[in-house]
């Protein structure tokens, strides 16, 4: 359960409210927003604040500008897109530290109006959680709202610092995200299946360990596959492998047996001669990988095996692709997973940038129960961690 106060638990009418949103959105060469999903996800919170005549001050980051201003990371495109979606003008400031901003908020800004500050990461104090920077941001408002689940695992000024100086509550998106992942851990309908892909076992060590106490079945796919196969003393050729995680992979396979969790690995692999989109490829069983070839996708028998397992699940969490899905010839595994999850009758939750990209690529966004806006934050929640951005918020009585 979510034990923190939200904007609906306090009086925000006619208040100055500073809101941490996640508008780290992709831009094209003309600096226009390509995908406005993250902006759209903030709308329920912003509309609620607007309906309550709040003065709404938005702050976000974009990209990794490393503490200095860069044109390609300015938030003007996000402000324009938000204005289109809300059908109102969004006043965007080119600064954060400015007496003009304070004066505007206090003397000119109207109730229900929305303004946006410049990219937080143009200032070193954001990532270092500088107290002076946090206190300045807090001085602009009366109430702090965190609606940026994607950054809730970062102990940055706008996430963990500002709440030290203001009444701090959750927005509606953050509340929904945390409730979704809490239900996965606390009360999933069984059978509960987790699908973990991507390249690095090391990125998912604590997640796997925690989930092996919760799930009925765990599918391992993607680049992670080969660390587990090598841990089983199989030849993996030139496939990606984390040598320092072999003992951990063995430990996890033993823990799965002990906990009666069905841990599924691919039974056949699509291997390639080189890491190139047009290279020679073939599908072979996992015990026949040539020493000079590399695995880049699942095979047809594995697709059938995993699809059948997905059909029997009632709760599914998916994070990580099954192969190099950006290249069509190595996308069959990820595509099959996406359609199997989307067409299942289970409650389905997906997270992680590549996973979300795959779901969008195949036009399946509307068929997933919940697509998380925060890959890193969702994984840390599934590790059982309390995130800094949540810990900083006011607790319910």
Short description:
This protein is an alpha/beta fold.
Structural class: alpha/beta
Number of domains: 2
Mean pLDDT: 95
CATH class of the largest domain: Alpha Beta
Unreliable sequence segments: none
User: What coarse outline follows from CA principal-axis ratios?
Assistant: elongated
Strand content: 15-25%
Strand count: 15
Q: What is the CATH topology assignment of the largest domain?
A: Rossmann fold
Evaluate the radius of gyration.
Answer: 23 Å
Largest pleated sheet: 6 strands, parallel
CATH architectural name of the largest domain: 3-Layer(aba) Sandwich
CATH superfamily of the largest domain: Phosphoglycerate kinase, N-terminal domain
Distance between the termini: 14 Å
Keyword list:
single chain; 397 residues; alpha/beta; Rossmann fold; 2 domains; 6-stranded parallel sheet; 15 strands; elongated
Describe this structure in words.
The chain contains 16 helices and 15 strands. α10 crosses α11 and α12 (300-311) packs parallel to α13 (332-343). The protein has 2 domains: 16-173, Rossmann fold (3-Layer(aba) Sandwich); 180-382, Phosphoglycerate kinase, N-terminal domain (Rossmann fold, 3-Layer(aba) Sandwich), CATH 3.40.50. α4 links the parallel β3 and β4 (114-116). The model has no long low-confidence stretch (mean pLDDT 95). The chain is an alpha/beta fold and 397 residues long. The strands form 3 sheets. Strands 3-4-2-1-5-6 form a 6-stranded parallel β-sheet. Strands 9-8-7-13-14-15 form a 6-stranded parallel β-sheet, with helices on both faces. It has a 3-stranded antiparallel β-sheet with strand order 11-10-12.
